[in-house]
Amino acid sequence: WVTSASSSDFGKFDSVAAKYSDSDSNLGYKSTQDAHFYASSAAMTKFSNKDDSLVVQFSVKHEQDIDCGGGYVKLFPSTLDQKDMQGESPYNIMFGPDICGPGTRKVHAIFNYNGKNLLWKKEPRCESDQLTHFYTAVIKSDNPYEMYID
User: Where are the beta strands (DSSP E) in 1-53?
Assistant: First the structure.
């Protein structure tokens, strides 16, 4: 993983075992500072889902009460300059939970197509409890998609 150096205000991640894990070797990526944006990425080689489905799946666990924060992932083009990644960096897919107060508790799914961000019309509520939740996006080769939560 590479942490962006484009801002000194980005929060720091740590690799830690889950609070209720039975193994110290089963590590997750944990944010360590409240009220910060985070920018860390893993390089991906260029790929296409032209002849097959693309599945993006990850889990989110808030180990403390959360009032405002996002737990989403972005899939960037393979040309991303990881050290210069920032909030405005172009991405292909953004997917995951977003919580901001009691009124905004939704799952985002945004696809970038020809430079335009296309938002998922549905806005399912995400959980804000302290349990682990799984988020799965399946994008089929002919472009329909399905989203699953838990």
Answer: 2-3, 13-17, 27-31, 40-41
